[in-house]
Amino acid sequence: MLQTAVDSGSSSIYMAWQNDANSPAQFLGFAYDLYKNEYVLNKGNGTMWHPFPANANAGFIPVDNTGGYFAWISNQYANGDWYLSNAKPLIVYSGMPNTPANVALAKTGSNQVKLTWKPDIFGAWHAQVIFWSSTVGWNTLTTGPDGTGQWHFLMYGTNAFMNGEATFTVPEPATYHAIIRFVAWNAQTVGELAATGFVDVN
């Protein structure tokens, strides 16, 4: 039975379990990343399985990013029998935030564009956005949900952050391009940038 699954504080999931059955050949742990919608792969064997010795009652599963996860432990026996615990949900706050996924920019009207992305409501404290234009480069001043500026800070709990979309007013006809990144809760770690395509605004 999986008793504990928590953030270890060092970019990994700490799991502790109690085995009330016969001693297995080994324990197999695994975790599911809710943002990426995929199992966490073991960097040693390239599979979703994270093996632990038969006499173990705790272990770690390294993860790449902050965010929401499910974790399990299982007994595997020499005859092939395999028994799985119930899943435990948890949030990992330590480490790097995810790179925003599904990022896109579209013209929505006169001097207006909409930036969309997949929000990470578990792993990020806020999102940071900046625009590039074909006229003044990265010195572009745009107006978004948080006001006017070069950088925009879309905070946790706001509609833009939670829904993964924000509308911006651009200053003049030009070609525009945006980048967005997440900032994690723990130590405010800044993640990798994700870029949109180029959009002509007339």
Summarize the structure.
The protein is mostly beta strands and 202 residues long. It is built from 1 helix and 19 strands. It has one helix at residues 159-163; strands at 2-7, 12-17, 26-33, 38-39, 50-52, 58-62, 67-76, 82-84, 88-92, 101-109, 112-118, 126-133, 142-144, 147-149, 151-155, 165-169, 174-183, 194-195, 199-201.
Calculate the terminal CA-CA distance, rounded to whole Å.
61 Å
Gyration radius, to the nearest Å? 22 Å
Number of strands: 19
Task: Look up the CATH topology of the largest domain.
Answer: Immunoglobulin-like
Approximately how much helix is present in the residues? under 10%
For the record, the CATH class of the largest domain is Mainly Beta
Which characteristics define this entry?
Immunoglobulin-like; 6-stranded antiparallel β-sheet; mainly beta
Q: Would you mind describing this structure in some detail?
A:
2% of the residues lie in helices and 51% in strands. It is built from one helix and 19 strands. The protein has one helix at residues 159-163; strands spanning 2-7, 12-17, 26-33, 38-39, 50-52, 58-62, 67-76, 82-84, 88-92, 101-109, 112-118, 126-133, 142-144, 147-149, 151-155, 165-169, 174-183, 194-195, 199-201. The strands form five sheets. Strands 3, 4, 5, 7, 8 and 9 form a six-stranded antiparallel β-sheet that branches. Strands 12, 15, 17, 18 and 19 form a five-stranded antiparallel β-sheet that branches. A three-stranded antiparallel β-sheet has the order 1-2-6, with no helix packed on it. It is elongated and about 70 Å long.
